[in-house]
Structure formats: structure tokens, C-alpha cells
Design goal:
Elements: H1 3-19, E1 38-48, E2 51-60, E3 67-74, E4 82-88, E5 94-99, E6 109-115, E7 121-128, E8 134-144, E9 150-158, E10 166-172, E11 185-186, E12 194-202, E13 205-212, E14 217-223, E15 231-234, E16 246-252, E17 258-264, E18 269-275, E19 286-287, E20 295-306, E21 315-321, E22 327-331, E23 337-341, H2 348-353, E24 356-360, E25 368-371, E26 377-381, E27 384-388, H3 394-399, E28 402-406, E29 413-417, E30 423-428, E31 431-436, H4 441-446, E32 448-452
Antiparallel strand pairs: 1-2, 1-20, 2-3, 4-5, 5-6, 6-7, 8-9, 9-10, 10-11, 12-13, 13-14, 14-15, 16-17, 17-18, 18-19, 21-24, 21-32, 22-23, 24-25, 26-27, 28-29, 29-32, 30-31
Keywords: Hydrolase, Signal
GO molecular function: hydrolase activity
Protein name: Glycoside hydrolase family 43 protein
Length: about 450
């Protein structure tokens, strides 16, 4: 974030606090990373540019850097598996629903499969969607409402409108086995000629993200009921996603923000953006590292699982580079961060510069902050790591908070920015920076550190 924008955000945050308002920059109330012994896992299911008949499964600790867990992980007995959507049911199983046909054939069914472990799937059945004159049933997405009902939101076209004119419909499971479904109900206020509708609920409001097939933009609307009527309030390039995007899918991040993934199908790319103000504004679109140009129309399931990595708090440690083991995180006299050589013969001042007290994160106690002997905290500013005195602002607390992710070697960690998910502390030319995750071995090593016995 540039200095001018950061100053504006800090001012607005202060004004909001004085007025007793909930600041839009603070994230969701109560949002926090899992405690020690637990971790967030984001599971992605996707079909690919190379195959519409096979599904691939990836997962990630940060919703940015995804690792292939099995591919192909599922191939239906017949038909295709486009647009696979995943959720975990109360019976402990993971379920898929997906599009079974593509452009060249009428498609009146959606498919279902089930898994105990996300990786090995069993075909359940193809379901014929009972819509009169149905031509195509595409892009089914799970939606579990706050009352516990399990729903599917799908895009369907009927003969009366034309086979390429889609509207969103809702199906609701009428039994816990997910084998019986209510009659389809049209979502009013969206369309016609809208496809790939994805819905999330915050409080009592339903938020719909849907592709306008006429303009090719992802639009946004809200309703007080799942079936509408929705009021589309954001059209055109309102979020900066650009035209030619489809397949929006959202997931909430641990810091309270929301991430949207979307498919730039024409350009053969995949993108994501983040929002922290109830979807009013979005971060600059970023290509999904390592998977852009390969995965297609994905969904991401967030869970809390056992595991994760931790650091000892309220203790002093030095942070040793994994791939330059003779170098350590230090604060030089310019208060900027570097990885410099430190040895037993180094001066006391150098040893002190490489020694930090690890404390619970200023913005989230389940993450970490690092304070040096001068009382300065490791924080980012313009994506450069520096050491500054706490100024008491929310912005500073977030800038100085980092969440531990597994590093490249046993016992090492990668430190992800709390307020810029997907960006990590890494060294480059021995300078410490906050850089977006890159799907390379070099980046992963450059951003891995081991907390070792303190030099001072």
C-alpha cells in the first residue's frame, strides 16, 4: 500500500473510532486465525484446461499458494466434471456437485459424488433437474444457509428463452442423504441472461455475485431472502475485475476479509481479489500463483483442522534464513530489515540486532509480532520490512502481525502478513520485503526462517 493511501486509511479509521462507528477497514468482528494446534485448510476442487473429465484437488494454508494433493482425483463413470463445487456435510462426508455436459450437448443433469478424505471420491448419481423445457443445467454451487438447509444454486436455460439464456435457480435438499430435492425455485431479480451465480450470507443479507452474459462482467446484488428479489447494485467494471470473467467463488479469510476467485476464460488466466468493506471495494486483481492458466471454474472450501506450526511466545529468538544459514533477520541502523551474517565473533550490537522477543500478534493473538531490544516492532511499509515504534493505531497492529505457515524445512516457518494475505516476509538481495507468494522453490526457501536460540 502506498504511503498516501495508508495515511488516508489511518485517518478514516481514527475518525470512525471517534464517532463510535465500526470501521470498514477492521475486518469482520471476531475474525481470528485458529489457536495453537489447529490450522486453516483451504481445499480447492477444479477441472482443468487439459481435461473436462477429471477433477483435481489442491489445498492451501493461506488461500493463495495451493499444492496439488491428487490429480486426477475423480473421474465420473460417464459425462464430464465441469464446475465442481465442494462442501462438507454434517454427516462428515465431503460432497461434490458438478456440470455433466458441455457446449456440444443438451445438459439436463447435474452430478453428485462423495468422499471421506477429499481425495478419493465415489460417484453417487446424476440428477435430472425438473425444469420444464430445460436445455442446460450448469454451474451448480452448494449453499448451506444459516438455518442448516443444504441448497444448490444452479444456472439453467429453457427452450422458451433460448438454450444460451441462463437464469439462476435454487434446489433444496429434502433429506439428509442429499438424494431428494425440492422443486426448483427461480431466484428473482437476477437475469435473464445471468450465469454462474454464487451466494454468501452475512448476517441476514444474501450477497450474490453473478456473471452478466451480455456485458461479460461479474455483477453484485443483495436480498433479504435466498430466492430474492435481488437488487443488482454493482454493474460494469465496478470492482476492477475487468470484462470476460466468470465462475466467481468466494471464501472468507482468517483476518475477516473476503476473497473472490474468478476465471478469465478468454485469456486463459485465473485471478483473485480481496475485500474488507462489505464488498464495496476490492484489491488489485492478482493471478493465482502456479495455477493460473491451468485450473478452470473452481470452488474453495475452508476448514479448521489439527496441525499447523507455532512459535514460542514471550521468549527471545533469532530468525535464521533457511537457505542462507549463516544469515539472520536483523535491524540495521536505518531501521530496515535485512538478512545479515551473524557469528560468535560479531559485536554485541550486531547480535542484539538479530535478537527479538516473540509476542502474540498485535492484531491477532493467534499470530505473532516481533519486538527488538529497542522496543521497535518488525512491520511492513510500502512492502519493505522495517522496525518501528508502535504508534497505537490499528494499521500499525496489522502491519506488525504475521501468521506462521509451514516452511521448507522441518521446524521452519514462513511468516504471512496478517493484513495482506498471500504476502510473505522474504529476502531478496539480502533485503527483507513483503512479497506475494510465488509458486517456486526459490521463493519458498527465501521466505522460510527457523526460530533459533537468541544471539543476545
Amino acid at each position: 500500500m502506498n504511503r498516501t493511501l495508508r495515511a488516508v486509511l489511518a485517518l478514516l479509521t481514527s475518525v470512525a473510532a471517534l464517532l463510535g462507528l465500526t470501521t470498514a477497514f477492521a475486518g469482520a468482528a471476531g475474525a481470528a486465525h485458529p489457536p495453537a494446534g489447529q490450522a486453516t485448510r483451504y481445499t480447492m476442487t477444479a477441472f482443468t484446461n487439459s481435461s473436462e473429465s477429471n477433477m483435481y484437488v489442491y489445498d492451501s494454508p493461506d488461500a493463495t499458494g495451493f499444492t496439488l494433493r491428487k490429480g486426477p482425483a475423480y473421474t465420473p463413470p460417464s459425462g464430464l466434471i465441469r464446475d465442481p463445487s465442494i462442501f462438507k456435510h454434517t454427516d462428515g462426508y465431503y460432497y461434490l456437485t458438478y456440470t455433466t455436459r458441455t457446449w456440444s450437448a443438451l445438459s439436463t443433469t447435474i452430478g453428485f459424488a462423495r468422499s471421506t478424505d477429499r481425495l478419493n471420491w465415489t460417484f453417487l448419481y446424476d440428477y435430472t433437474v425438473p425444469i420444464s423445457g430445460l436445455q442446460r443445467a450448469w454451474a451448480p454451487e452448494w449453499f448451506v444457509d444459516t438455518n442448516g438447509s443444504v441448497n444448490i444454486i444452479l444456472s439453467a436455460s429453457v427452450a422458451a428463452d433460448g438454450e444460451w439464456i441462463f437464469k439462476p435457480y435454487k434446489l433444496t435438499a429434502t433429506n439428509s442423504a442429499l438424494t431428494a430435492w425440492s422443486a426448483p425455485t427461480r431466484l428473482s431479480g437476477i437475469g435473464p441472461n445471468y450465469i454462474d451465480t454464487f451466494i454468501v450470507k452475512i448476517g441476514s443479507t444474501y450477497h450474490a455475485f453473478t456473471k452478466n452474459e451480455t456485458t461479460k462482467y461479474i455483477e453484485y446484488g443483495t436480498a433479504s431472502s435466498l430466492t430474492g428479489p435481488y437488487t443488482i447494485t454493482k454493474t460494469g467494471n465496478w470492482a476492477g475485475f475487468g470484462s470476460g470473467m466468470e465462475g466467481p467463488a468466494l471464501v472468507q479469510l482468517d483476518n475477516g476479509g473476503w476473497r473472490i476467485y474468478y476465471d478469465a476464460y478468454g485469456a486463459g488466466q485465473y485471478w483473485y481479489s480481496d475485500s474488507y468493506d462489505n464488498f464495496a471495494t476490492w484489491s488489485t486483481p492478482t493471478q493465482l500463483p502456479g495455477l493460473t492458466g491451468f485450473v478452470r471454474h473452481l470452488t474453495v472450501l475452508k476448514e479448521t483442522v489439527s496441525g499447523g506450526v507455532t512459535l514460542p511466545t514471550n521468549t527471545t529468538r533469532s530468525l535464521q534464513s533457511v537457505n542462507y544459514t549463516g544469515r539472520y533477520t536483523v535491524a540495521r541502523s536505518d531501521n530496515l530489515g535485512y538478512v545479515d551474517p551473524v557469528t560468535s565473533s560479531s559485536t554485541t550490537a550486531v547480535k542484539q540486532s538479530a535478537t527479538f522477543t516473540v509476542v502474540p500478534g498485535l492484531a491477532d493473538a493467534n499470530c505473532y509480532s516481533f519486538r527488538n531490544s529497542a522496543g521497535r516492532y518488525l512491520r511492513h511499509w510500502d512492502y519493505r520490512i522495517r522496525f518501528d515504534t508502535d504508534d497505537g493505531t490499528t494499521v500499525f497492529d496489522k502491519d506488525a502481525t504475521y501468521c506462521a505457515r509451514p516452511g521448507t524445512t522441518s521446524g521452519s516457518v514462513r511468516l504471512e502478513s496478517y493484513n495482506y494475505p498471500g504476502r510473505y516476509i522474504r529476502h531478496y538481495n539480502y533485503e527483507l520485503r513483503l512479497d506475494i507468494h510465488q509458486a517456486t522453490d526459490t521463493f519458498r526457501a527465501d521466505s522460510s526462517f527457523t526460530a533459533v536460540s537468541p544471539w543476545a
